[in-house]
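Researcher: We plan to redesign the surface later, but first we want a full-length starting point. C-alpha cells attached.
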C-alpha cells in the first residue's frame, strides 16, 4: 500500500508509520513541520517514508494524495494541555475541522482516488456520565468536546459522496510511553500517586499497540465502514486505574489530586480528566478484532516495565 498520514509525528501517528514501514508499505507524511518530521523519520532508517510540506497556505501537497491507496487523518491540537481560553478552543476545533476539510477536498479531486479514509475522532462525542454506558449507536453529548467531534466527523463524512470508504475511529485514552499516561507516571515515581478528582469517573482506554492494529485492520478490511469505538472492552474507574498503577509500579496510590487543583491548572479543560464516560467497543468487537491488551493490568505492566 501507499498511505498518506496527517498527524504522523504524534503519539499514535509515529507508531503507525513505524508499523507500516516495517511491513514494507510506502508512507507519505503530510506535515507542517518538515524539519521535525525529518528528525522523527530520518531517511536512512525510513527509506519508504516521504515527507511532504502540507502548510495551509499551499495546496500543492494535495496532489500527493493522487495515487495513494489510503489516507489516515490523525491531525488535531492536543485537548488536554493548557487552559481552554476562547482562542485555545478555536484552535482545538479548527485543527480538526479545517484539516479534515482539506483532506476530503484532496481526495475528491484525486485521480486515481484512495479507496479508504480512516479518520480519527474521540469518545468525547458521547459527552460525560458516571452512570451511562455508550456504544457506537449512542447519541452525541452537548458539551464542547462533543461539538468538536460532531463537527470533525461531519467533515469526514463528505468523502463518501466521492465513493470512498470511510472509517471513523473514536479514540479513548491511548496508553503508552508518553501521552496521558506519561503525565501520570511522575507522581507515582515520587510516591505521591493517587486518583484524580472523585475517582468515580470512568476511564475508557486503549493500549497504543491495539489502536495501531485497529487502524491497520481498518485500512485492509474492506467490509469495515462507519463508526467504531477505539477503546478496550474493559473500561475502569479512575480509582481502579490509580490502584492498578500503584500495584504495577510498586508505589502507594492513596494520595488524591483534588478537583480544584486540576481546575485551577486547566480551567474548562479539566473536564478531560475530571469527567469521563464508560464506552464499549461493540462494533469493533463485531469485526473480529482481537485485542492484545483487553485488560488494564497487563497493559500497564507491558508499558511500565
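Model: Full-length starting sequence:
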Amino acid at each position: 500500500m501507499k498511505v498518506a498520514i496527517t498527524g504522523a509525528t504524534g503519539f499514535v501517528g509515529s507508531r503507525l508509520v513505524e508499523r507500516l514501514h516495517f511491513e514494507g508499505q510506502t508512507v507519505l507524511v503530510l506535515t507542517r513541520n518538515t524539519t521535525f518530521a525529518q528528525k522523527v523519520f530520518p531517511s536512512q532508517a525510513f527509506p519508504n517514508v516521504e515527507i511532504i510540506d502540507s502548510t495551509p497556505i499551499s495546496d500543492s501537497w494535495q496532489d500527493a494524495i493522487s495515487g495513494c491507496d489510503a489516507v489516515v487523518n490523525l491531525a488535531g491540537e492536543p485537548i488536554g494541555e493548557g487552559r481552554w481560553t476562547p482562542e485555545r478552543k478555536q484552535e482545538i476545533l479548527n485543527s480538526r475541522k479545517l484539516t479534515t476539510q482539506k483532506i476530503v477536498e484532496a481526495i475528491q479531486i484525486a485521480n486515481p482516488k484512495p479507496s479508504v479514509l480512516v479518520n480519527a475522532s474521540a469518545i468525547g462525542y458521547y459527552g460525560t456520565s458516571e452512570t451511562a454506558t455508550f456504544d457506537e449507536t449512542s447519541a452525541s453529548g452537548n458539551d464542547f468536546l462533543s461539538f468538536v467531534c460532531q463537527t470533525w466527523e461531519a467533515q469526514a463524512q463528505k468523502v463518501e459522496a466521492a465513493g470512498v470508504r470511510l472509517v471513523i475511529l473514536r479514540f479513548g485514552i491511548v496508553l503508552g510511553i508518553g501521552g496521558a499516561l506519561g503525565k501520570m507516571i511522575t507522581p507515582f515515581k515520587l510516591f505521591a500517586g493517587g486518583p484524580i478528582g472523585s475517582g468515580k469517573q470512568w476511564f475508557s482506554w486503549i493500549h497504543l499497540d491495539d489502536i495501531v492494529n485497529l487502524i491497520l485492520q481498518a485500512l485492509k478490511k474492506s467490509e469495515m465502514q462507519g463508526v467504531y469505538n477505539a477503546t478496550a472492552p474493559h473500561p475502569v474507574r479512575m480509582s481502579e486505574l490509580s490502584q492498578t498503577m500503584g500495584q504495577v509500579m510498586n508505589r502507594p496510590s492513596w494520595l488524591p489530586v483534588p478537583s480544584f487543583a486540576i481546575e485551577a491548572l486547566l480551567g474548562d479543560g479539566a473536564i478531560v480528566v475530571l469527567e469521563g464516560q464508560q464506552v464499549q467497543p461493540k462494533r469493533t468487537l463485531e469485526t473480529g478484532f482481537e485485542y492484545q491488551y483487553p485488560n488494564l493490568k497487563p497493559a500497564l505492566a507491558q508499558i511500565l516495565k
